[in-house]
Amino acid sequence: MDGVNTMRLLSLYSGGKDSTYALVKAKEMGHDISCLLTLHPETDASLLFHYPNSWVTSYLGEAMCIPSFGFAARSGTKEDELKSLEQAIIAVKSLHEIHGVVHGGIFSTFQSDIVQRICCKHNLTVIAPLWHIQQSEYMDLLLEKNFDVKIVSVSAMGLDEGWLGVSLNREALHRLKHLSQKYCFSVSFEGGEAETLVIDCPIFYKRLQVRKAKIRWDGQRGIFEILEVALVEK
Description:
234 residues, alpha/beta, Rossmann fold, putative n-type atp pyrophosphatase, domain 2, 5-stranded parallel beta sheet, 9 strands, 31% helix
């Protein structure tokens, strides 16, 4: 290690705003992000893992010049998913000399406790830079930090088909804050009300370009399904 407080970390990475910003914050703290780990769930009913467009994380790893690993995750029960995550962390740990795990949890003790449980068992430190961050200010901060964030799924009252594929800007965030108050959902989507994908941010050496996508909508919830992407110069 380069310093007493500097660690080589594995990033639990979905490609969404929270896992990406947590990674950025960990780097700002002086840690080395050794690799990314993405779990690919079988269905969108996963309790732990981000489902929409999880395959795109390999491109985002390339955009950041960070090695990425993907593993299939058994869906069904909490214990099934916990076992999938633990096995994946063990596999990556055997390839990289990691000292800890960084994740983007904000308020979910369910997810945080699972990560803590696995890491404690395998002598890994947990880094959670966003834990209990003020959510409205956090969303503002993402725009201030030049994060290009696209909404790729919605599943909450107040968020309709028109939000799928939307990139957050000041106007969209203003509308989102109004709807979150009206319909009582988390403006940061901490409760799973929506999922996001980061298209660009300051630590990307290239920008992700969505070349082909389709919207899947069942009347109450939907997914912006990305079919083709490319990395382009910024």
